[in-house]
Structure formats: structure tokens, C-alpha cells
Amino acid sequence: MTDPFGFLRIPRKAVAARPVEERLGDWREVYAGQALLPLVREQADRCMDCGIPFCHTGCPLGNLIPEWNAYAAHADWSAAYERLHATNNFPEFTGRLCPAPCEDACVLAINADPVTIKNVEQTIADEGLRRGYMTPRPPERHGGKSVGVIGSGPAGLAAAQQLTRAGHRVVVHERADRIGGLLRYGIPEFKMEKAHLDRRIEQMRAEGTAFVTGADVGGAERADELRGRYDALVVAVGAGERRELPVPGRALLGIHQAMDYLTCANRVREGDCAVSPVTADGAHVVIVGGGDTGSDCLGTALRQGALSVVQLDINPEPGPSRRDGEPWPVYPRVYRISHAHEEARGQAGSDPRLFSCATLRFDGDADGRVRALRLTAVESEARRPLTGTERVIPAGLVLLALGFSGPERAGGLSGQLGLEFDERGNFARDAGFAAGGRAPGVFVAGDAGRGQSLVVWAIAEGRSAASAVDRYLTGSTALPAPVAAHDQPMTALGRMRYGDL
To answer: What mean pLDDT value characterizes the chain?
Structure first.
């Protein structure tokens, strides 16, 4: 167990990122090269080993956090690595990319600083890799059933790995030229170096999972014909239907969807081109949207040499602490600083975000390129423009980071498989991830059925969908199912990942 008094005598201390000026000069991860083990071991000792660990509930994967905290505190990295992977296929992804709702659900967070769970998770994963613990786990036997997985994001990869290890023949079909989905082209290198993704893909290949790239299922490759080649099909295509900004001037040159911009930047890092065709170099950049994708665009623009960067958020600036409607252990909306925001502060001296702002129109020059953005302050609740608050800011590159509204409608995937849409614009499914209706043997996992969400939810859904597919193919399953298809994060009203209480 951990030190019974560790939470009393040891203050919280997160792993420090590299200096701003250093990391803005390269694309390596913000923690690259930092000495983690002594600090992380001490921080893991702060875990209270609670009788009822709410961190389990804050995490949709149900990660065994107190257990691997205890092992990490005693430097038993082998046992910590095993406990970490008991519930999570890709902890090196979540340790870098997840916003850690488990920390806000930590019992210590009731009246003190929570355990640095995310730092511990990443360190265990990385130390296990360094020690050679990440080895292939091929199945002991094969059952003769085949499964096709459409999409190679975290949900598709998790489902594929679980089903391969259960003894099924699994083939992952990816539309892009490389495997990984948004992990490959949507996440900047400074948040997660792609070597981590490549290692997992090689592990999966060694276990028996096959991959096909350039497979436009529903387009050049008919989805119904693909369904006929497999005993079951998992649709994990993500939520790629991008939200638009229908304001005057939207058609001007220099206004791009954020994901197109990030994909171009990642292709440079992959070696596909020397310079991005959409670059912030020498430009005044405006990012419309206050979420994680906007933050990723911010960090990318700073590294590309933007003259200035402003990020617009239509929501009001959050306060420093929980509101009454967001009691512990709910994940609260509070004022948070990403590494990209910290970098912008270090360069410009102020937070790059403007809260409670909405875009009115874009102004262009004689060549049809965007040159300015007109914005207005808005009311906190109704989001109506406030009279007399209009202002103009320079904009040579505008990035729309407004989120997604479900899987892409273009193409024939839904029609060819008989998939239906729910009221939120996602692929409809039952509690067991089955599409049903005209799509027997078709299962929907990840953002395609849930809507845009966190990487930890995608992995949880992939694992649960794999359990449902295994049961469909064999009549029973030993694969874990951490969530049901309609489970939601905790709220103050008590709706949790386990369903309504």
C-alpha cells in the first residue's frame, strides 16, 4: 500500500514541462527528456488507497488507479504496468492526451489537491516500454471468426486489439494513408510523438491484427460488400462532420477548418512535405473555438512562427473553482491553462483567449483574402450580441475549431450498411453497441455513436464493443465491457457512466 500519511506530508507537485522558449523551438513533447521517476514515485505515495476510490468512476475505463499508484510508489514497475494494462490498451495515449477527469474525482480533491494521476500513468507506461514490458500478446487459439473494423482511431484500435487477442481474425480498414485516425493527423507532435502510436501498431501486427490503408469504405469500396466478407463489422469512423460558421466573408481565402490545418502540419512531421500548404508563418492568426482542438491549433501556430494568435471562445471565462452545480466528483468547468496557452503567455505576456465573444463577419482585401475579423461580446446565457461591443482584429489566417456534429454524412457508409441516425446526429445503436435494424452483425463504437468525446471514452467504447462482438460471434465472452453505449460522464444529477442511479 501507499504511505498512509503521504497525502498529509507530501504536497502535490506536477511534472514540470520544458521551458517555453525551448519547446517552441522544436516539435518534441513538452515533457521530453524530463526526469520523472523520483518525483512520480513520491507523488504516487500521496494516494489515499480509498475504501471507495471515486477515481475509478471518474474514468470510464475503470482504471485501477490506487493499485498502480501503490506499485509505482514502491518502484514495482512490472506490477504497475500489468495493472495499468488490465483496463487500458493504450495508457501512453491517455497519459498524454486525456484531461484526467479521474483527478477531479480523486477523494483528495474534496478539500485538497488531488493525486497527479495523469503523470503517474504516463510514467508507468513509458518506464514499462523502456524496460521491455510491451510485448505482443497473440491469442492462444483462433476461433475461425472474422471481424472487419472501419476506422483506426482509438476506438477502432482498442476494439481490434481486444478481438484479436480473443482469437478472431481482425482487419482494420482506414481511409487515410496511415493508421491512427485523429491520433495520427489530428494530434500535434508536441502533445504525443507518433513513435508511441507506431509502436502500438507494430505490437498489434505481431499479435495478428491486419491493417489496410487507403480504404474509403462507403465510397470507392462498398460497405455492404465489405460486410459480406466478415462475420461481424465494427464501425469506428469517428465524428468527422465539422461544424461551420455561416457568417459573411466565410468564403474568403485564408479561412480553414482546424482539422485540415492540423493534418497539414502533421504531414510535415511525417515527412510528406517540407512546408505546410497552410501555415501560420508571418500571419496574424485567429482561432474560432475555445476547446482542445483550438488549443492544438494555438501551439502549432506558435511553432510555425505566427506574428500573433488570438483564440475566441463564445463561453464566459470560467471561475477558479467549482460552481454549485458541479460538486465533487463531477468534472468541473473551471479556468484551465493548456501547455499551448502557457506558451502564448510566455511569448506575448497574456492569455490569448477572448471569452464571451462571437464572430460577426470576415473582411477581405482586393485579392479575396481574409484580412480582419469583426467580433462582438455576447451575453453569458443567451449568447446575444451586446450593443456597442463590436471590434475589429487583424486576421491573415483563421482556423475554425468549432467541434463536430457526428459522423460524416457524405459517402455511402450509412446507406450501404443500413445505419440510422439518432436525434443527436450520431449512428444509432442499442445499449450493446449493435446497430440493429437493417444492419445485423454491425456494431458502432466511439465518437461515431457517442459524438465527439475524450480519448479515454473512445478506448472504453472500443473495449466494450469488442466484448459485444465476441458475444455475438461465440455466444459468450470473457472480454471486459467498462461502459454501455448510452452511459454518460458523471453529473450533479447523478447520471454516471453506469447509467441512471
So the answer is: 95
